[in-house]
Amino acid sequence: MSVIWWPSPAKLNLFLHITGRLDNGYHQLQTLFQMLDVGDELAFDVNDNGQITMATSLPGVADDDNLIIRAARLLASYTGCQKGAVIRLNKQLPMGGGIGGGSSNAATTLVALNHLWQCGLSNNELAQLGLQLGADVPVFVHGETVFASGVGEQFTPAGHTEQYYLVVNPGVHVSTPAVFGEPDLPRNTPVIDFQDYSFDLTTNDCQQIVTNRHPEVAKLLQWLLQFAPSRMTGTGACVFATFSNRSEALAVQAKLPAHWRGFVAKGVAQSPLKIQLHEVNAVPDRT
Fold first, then answer.
1. Catalytic residues
2. Quick one: 22 and 85 in the same domain?
3. What is the CA radius of gyration of the chain?
4. What is the pTM of this model?
5. pLDDT tens for each residue of 26-66
6. Nearest-angstrom CA–CA distance, 94 and 259
7. Confidence band (pLDDT; 50, 70, 90) for 120?
8. 85 has pLDDT over 60
9. How far is the C-alpha of 163 from the C-alpha of 161, rounded, in Å?
10. Structural domain for 182, as ranges
11. Cis peptide before 237 (omega within 30 of 0)
12. Which of 24, 109, 159, 220 could bridge to 71 as Cys pair (CB 3.0-4.6 Å)?
């Protein structure tokens, strides 16, 4: 039987405004989650012995701390499912880059195992479950390009414009808790009406903090701005440049200095994970 690989796509925060802070310490924000057609892949070999393991551990990450394992165990515990799985990961996305690698892995695990284990949870139930693992997990469960508000869990459909992105990793690790704990972080950016969204009229409120702490991110951003509108995604460290066609993005990628690694991706309205779920649900089970 051929292996089914489930997509675990990357995302970009095309902008990130921090509009307030709640009493519990969480930050209120507005952002545009742009789904990409590039990402990691996961495969699940389901078993009946209840054991949930990685086929190969992620370097530097204990299995018990891996969001993939945590997501699978959370789903099993929540639903009472007695099945297990050996999980394989084809890792392509940089860790700690602000493009959703770990959160996307967790979401793909929830969506795929909900299907393979026949748990029967709705997308909204999976998203609520995923929120226990990270604020970005629900957007990957829903699998659509959306405006988000609240702490990142309230979604509004976004109009889709076909764009291509050169996403570049400067090779530094940025701590998200450290960024959000920074006293100088803007926390009172005015709320915008999503209908009035324009890339030129928005910012990433975390960008100045990160570029001050990490000169390599600042250097990368300045380099990309020579060629196209560019911005840091999320809390970093990855930076993206925006293009209207793939060939322009590939041309700039070819000029990247050797110490920076990048990839070109297309922005999509629906994530590859959502498309795959539709496809597998449309195929009759012949087992």
1. 11, 136
2. yes
3. 19
4. 0.93
5. 889 999 999 999 999 999 999 999 999 999 999 889 999 99
6. 14
7. very high
8. yes
9. 6
10. 164-268
11. yes
12. 109
